[in-house]
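User: I'm putting together a teaching handout on how sequence relates to shape, and I'd like one worked example. Could you take Pre-mRNA-splicing factor CEF1 from Trichomonascus ciferrii, show the sequence you're using, and then write out its predicted structure as tokens right after it?

Assistant: Happy to. First the sequence, then the structure tokens directly below it.
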Amino acid sequence: MAPYIKGGVWTNVEDEILKAAISKYGLNQWARVSSLLARKTAKQCKARWNEWLDPSIKKIEWSREEDEKLLHLAKLMPSQWRSIAPIVGRTANQCIERYQKLLDDAEQRERGDLSLTGTEGDASAPAEDSRRVIVGSSDTLAEARPARPDAIDMDDDEKEMLSEARARLANTQGKKAKRKDRERLLAETNRLAMLQKRRELKQAGINMKLGTKKSKTSIDYNADIPFQHKPAPGVYDTSEEKDANLRAKNRFDKLMKKKGIIRGETKDDDDRGQKRKELTEEQKQSAADQAAAARAHKLQQINQSEQIAKRRKLELPAPQVQDNELERIVKQDKLENKMRSVYMADDSGLSSGATSGLLPDHERSKGAIEHQSTRTPQISADDDYIYKATRDVRDLTATQSSLLGGESVRESSTATSIVPPGDNLAGTPNPLVARARVEDEEGKRPSLIGAFCRLPKPKNDFEIAIPEEEEQEMTEVREETDGVEEDAGEREKELKALREVERQKAVKRRSQVIQRNLPRPLLDNLPKASKETTPQALIEEELRKLVISDSIKYPAEGVSQNGFGGTQLPDLDDETRALAEQEISAELITQSGKHNIESTDSELAFGPEVADKLVESLSSVAEKANKNEKKLSLVLGGYMKRQEMLSKKLSEAHEAYQKAYIDSSVYAELRDMESIALTSRISSLQEEVNFLADAERTGQERYRYLKDEIQALQANEMM
């Protein structure tokens, strides 16, 4: 008979026994743990815990980042799975299985690409199936497999093992257990005695701390982390930037001091200085201790800086837009705005449609670029890093050495890479450079227009004559298309476009005040209707009706229009509105002498002499205001402080009054409730008293009766 070898697939009962034993004996006494399991050794118990039962083991699906990291580390440290596992965050067996799975997937992918049998051909079994454990054989990785379900009828040896484990794990009354109970009871007694002592001392006015005084050289391993080195925040080293910022701040302070500009100290600074002066000796000593500890920590960091890897500096990529390009874009914007202000308005002040089409409108294109969603380009199949890496590894392991006559492996970009894989994505689109490029193209527009103008005029006028046969075919096609039922989605789209056009036309029919969202006068300020027939009176009356009609049609937010009579005026059609605008523009030209009011206003408003005078007047007014403010602060400073003090006292008195009022109302409500409940309680108590009195009376009568009976019996006996 073959000897029995411990091991094999783990069951649920064995897993539960192992967990209970670890909770009692810990993670170091594996011999004691294995003594509870008849079919497992100490090494197998430890491997089962480290490979499957440990709660820190990740059993979720592998992500793409983990696969890339695994392949990269497998190239740097081949066959060193115990070193790779903690870096990836998985166990060594999980890393091996995933690595083989990636190689099998790559092989299957290439086999599927190169196969000629098609989708219905007989495919060979994958390599993963060939590595599966045959039923009945010993599994070398049984500790990393899920537990086998328990059978309904367990074997006798399993039942004996389970009963013995229950008895041993339930035995908590041994010598060590009794000693632990005594120590626990003694510690609880000491704790209660210390609490009673602190309570008595606190009643006497003495406060005592429970914890012992911490030594400067000692380390509390329960609260602190020994030999902890905190990494600097961020990914890159920014110490040089901090030094540069500090130097720039010092230069700025010196410049301000040289110019005589002193940074004013606030009230908080004064309070902070006062509090700093009021520090006690104990606080100063603690501050000195903290400073000494900080210096020691800094020296420790300096000493260990040679052993810690230095972080590389932050090196930003070169800017896509240079300074000269930015200057050229700004100049082009100024020139464009100037041309637009000159050519976009004619003599009457109205925009000219003939010149508006020749000028570029980059605001709309810029807004479109800003609102356009730039999405990350998708990685193509050729750029799949995992597939390339697995293919290279498989070629390296499968290809025979070139010294023995085999072909050399093709060179790959991933084979010689010593850095982790990164995302090679397309560059971010730059709207500024694109805009400058568009402006360069549009700069050729005048030359093209001039070239078109120099073309000779056409000598002949041509007319296109469609043959009769083609006309008949077009009519037949039109009739056929008319007979086809229109799609509901297309019809809805057309109706939506028509509604949008009608809405825009309705918006254009509104008055200019509503279109431009200008402020409107209140109806209270409108003049009353007059019965005069002069042209000015008629114009004012029509203006009044128009304002009332706009207020009724498009009421302003938060303004009530009730109480004013009036009717809504009908909107003008497009032809009538165009005629009215032509007459208004002609009248403006004749009255203003062919000068635009807005242009003259803009010239007056943006004149350099006027701007200089305005700046001088504003500076003088500001100086006078500052002087008056200082005088008023000196005169009214005492009153302001007095007002603050009185307002504070008033608020405190008001709070006290509110609190007293709440207390009085609460007690009054309590008194009313008690008065209501008092009668019911008195009546219930009176009933109980009456019941007790009746019971006492009946008891006394029975006592008297029984006493008389006893006396009568005694008299009869004596006789």
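A couple of points you could highlight for students: The mean pLDDT is 76. The two ends are 110 Å apart (CA to CA).
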